[in-house]
Amino acid sequence: MDTLERVPIATPFSVGRVNCYLFTEEGLTVVDPGPATNESYEELRTALARIDSRIADVDRVLITHPHMDHFGLAGRIVEESGARVFAHEDAAAQLSDPIGYFETEQRFFEPFLLSMGMPADTVDTVLELPEPYTNYQDPVTVTDELAEGNVVDIGVDLECISTPGHAPGSICYNAVAEDAMLTGDHVLPEITPNPLLTLVPGTDDERTRSLPTYLESLRTVLAMDVSVGYGGHGDPMPDLQVPIRETISHHQDRKERIAGLVADDEPATAYELMKTMFPDLPATEMFPGMSEVIGHLDLLEDEDRVAIEESDGVKRYVLETTDDVPRSDE
Ligand SMILES: [Zn+2]
Ligand SMILES: [Zn+2]
Fold first, then answer.
1. Which of 24, 39, 260, 319 gives the lowest tally of CB atoms within 10 Å of its CB?
2. pLDDT beyond 80 at 329
3. Residue 116 lies in a domain
4. In 3-state terms, what secondary structure has residue 42?
5. Each residue of 153-168: pLDDT tens digit?
6. What is the Cα–Cα distance from 224 to 81, expressed in whole angstroms?
7. Torsion of CA 57, 172, 42, 76, to 10 degrees
8. Is residue 329 a part of any domain in this protein?
9. Is 211 a domain residue?
10. Ligand nearest to C-alpha 233
11. Tens digit of pLDDT for each residue in 177-186?
12. What CATH number corresponds to the domain at position 143?
């Protein structure tokens, strides 16, 4: 896509740089400006100066999903430019109050993680760890809430493809005329995006079934048969089908591995299964680790291959042994 410029922006996170994309066809559009740090602000300012533009000139900010490495700086850009802000309607509430959202999530996930067998002191550690990282995002009001099928005209038409899973309110922006797609973190080169557990948008007491939802969104994009992908991290993907197929098969393999860990006679908690799967996981990786294991257990539950037994508020998984249940090979 000739009309787009990729600007890798520094982040304080282990994922490394985040891709910001600039479009200058009709006004100035910034897709995913980066986290709210002075460093990312300066990098964006420098990139804009190269095309004789300033932050104050930004007309539109498009957000792929409500993760702070992508949207954090949007609020500061809007303050300086009065830019319109486009994001999925399911992301709007989180974007306008990211700290409030984080706190609501913590309140939900404390009893949830306990019910999944995580020891109480580990739960405390896991939920407190992200706190210092909440500063890299400023609240931003979405002026243009998007839904599946909406088209945003930024000089090229971008069709919104709703792709929840990695995050609620995740959008891929499909440049139909260019046979190219901005995929955010939905599809990445080299990295398997984590299907993090979150609250279902608009609720404070229900978690997402992130992995089944994510795989469904992946198949949606696969079926669209778009050639080139521009992800939220890393280089452009010249054949978008390749990382999508790899990600689907990665999860297929992992699901079978986890199915192999669930016993048919001794029920185990998701936490116990995670410890078997990833014995040396540091606390910083435990929430993604639990998301991963619970996601695959959700898939197995959807296929009637595991059952859940609950006692004293703790859930344990056991292999479903009924013979008359047809096994899906997916
Ligand atoms: Zn993300
Ligand atoms: Zn990211």
1. 260
2. no
3. no
4. helix
5. 999 999 999 999 999 9
6. 35
7. 60
8. no
9. yes
10. 2
11. 999 999 999 9
12. 3.60.15.10
The whole domain housing 83 covers: 4-98+132-249
Which residue type is seen at 54?
Answer: R
Domain count, the chain: 1
Give distance in angstroms: CA of 166 to centre of ligand 1.
Answer: 6
pLDDT, average across residues 117-124: 96
pLDDT band at 328 (very low <50, low <70, confident <90, very high): low
- Integer Cα distance of 62 and 84 in angstroms: 8
Residues 6+ apart with CB under 8 A from 246: none
Measured in Å, residue 209 CA sits from the centre of ligand 2 at 20
Q: Which ligand is nearest to the CA of 11?
A: 2
DSSP E strands in 186-283: the ranges are 228-231
8 Å CB contact between 36 and 75:
yes
Residue type, 197: L
The pLDDT value given to residue 133: 79
Interval between CA 211 and ligand 1 midpoint (Å):
14
- For the packed helices 241-261 and 210-224, what is the interaxial angle rounded to 10 degrees? 150
pLDDT of residue 75: 98
